[in-house]
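sorry for the late reply, my laptop died twice this morning and i had to redo everyting from scratch. anyway the thing you sent over, i finally got around to it. pasting the sequence first so we're on the same page, its 271 residues, then the predicted structure underneath. double check i copied it right bc i was rushing
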Amino acid sequence: MTTSTEALPSSAYELMSNGNYRASVLTRGPWHPEHQHAGPPIALVCRAIEHSAAGHGLTHIGRLTANLLRPVPIGELAIEVATDYAGRNAGHFSARLLAGTKEVARFTALVQRENELPLPEGLQGHPLPLAPKTPEESAPCTFPFAGKHVGYADLVETRIAHGRMFNGPSAIWFRLRHALLDQEEPSEYQRVAVAADSGNGISAILDFERYSFVNSDLSVHLLRRPRGEWICLDARTQLGPNGTGLAESALYDVHGLIGRALQSLSVSHRK
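ok and here's the structure:
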């Protein structure tokens, strides 16, 4: 939790009368005090895609890809969602996130129809693997940027299941402390989106004070519907010698593996 005297809002976003969304300081990221962490706006767009897909009977987000074009300012945002194709078993959707007249992020998603399908016993790789520890077995931990400003570190509760945060490969449990949207319960998919963009941070292998390792995209693939409030990222970062890198996270809920997330990194010295 922050040590700032700044008051904590009740949610990351507020729905405005014009249908747009106003971001609160709970969305603030670590790189610039006026810019959002990408997790909350990705989750907000995920919510809009879920609502659009539900009208076609499609309820499982199998893939969500965010192309982060510009920093997302802490301010008013608009979301546009398009149905590119909706079939019997799957639909493809696209979305745009706008801050004023500027498009700050573009999204694509695959949303699938869910059907009850019992699996045969003894199936290879099943039951699905579990996270290294449960949330109850994992000690509380905090981001290294926590306390400087009210922000993302106040929006989420974190517990460490393996390794050390911001010091190489680590597994961290995430749970929302506050609502994504005021007076609304976030879906499990929105909970995944809020957390999944943190893989490059929790598995950082460079000094946060000296280097920037910002991701320009996020792609989340989910093999099944997540369940519960807790989402675990078991993440690792690998860097090339040309200012680029990749962060990869295995994603879990308390029942086991749910999918994977990838982030393409741009690495540089901080000014």
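The chain has a mean pLDDT of 95.
thats about all i looked at so far, will dig more tmrw
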